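agent> Task received from the user: take the single chain below, predict its 3D structure, and emit structure tokens. No templates, no multimer pairing.
agent> Plan: (1) validate residues, (2) run structure prediction, (3) serialize to tokens, (4) report one or two observations.
agent> Step 1 OK, no nonstandard residues flagged.
tool_call: predict_structure(input=
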Amino acid sequence: MAAESEPSKWLVEPLSKKHDRSAFSCGNESLDRYLKETAGQDASRKVAAPFVLVAETNLKTVVGYYTLSALGVDRSDFPLEVIKKLNLPPYQDIPVTLLGRLAIDTTRRGQGLGEFLLLDALSRALAQSSQIAAAAVVVDAIDEAAIRFYEYFEFLRFPETPDRLFLPMKTIAQLL
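)
tool_result: status=success, residues=176
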């Protein structure tokens, strides 16, 4: 029998009114509140694109989510060696994709779904970067556990903002 966390058992789709967010709880009040109260508004205002994880057997109940949006990062925020390695242009703002939030319901922890959502987000960001330029994916880690999670996937810290990390699109293309 296939494990519940296998990708074939899960779907990631844009947040819509059909999705039941009421029972979602990841253990972080701000992430829970965002999904329940603000994510739909952000989507309609086009300031964030929320994506939700649902089981194939229950397409309504949200068990995880993430958001993507556009962002500009000051070139000087990147480490000098990265600027050289990526051959970043001398523009003040470098376009990136912001992975604004990523959360899994506490009832589904330990099943690899955080990694599954992260890889889905990176795949979407990479696909869109050919149409809407983005040199990297940036995350603002909520705590030390989140920093360790992203560093496991080779995200690098911004020198002056240690809870902000990035993964160059070139690296994402190699990973995927």
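agent> Step 4: summary for the user.
Strands lie at 10-14, 49-55, 64-74, 93-104, 136-140, 156-158, 161-168.
agent> Done.
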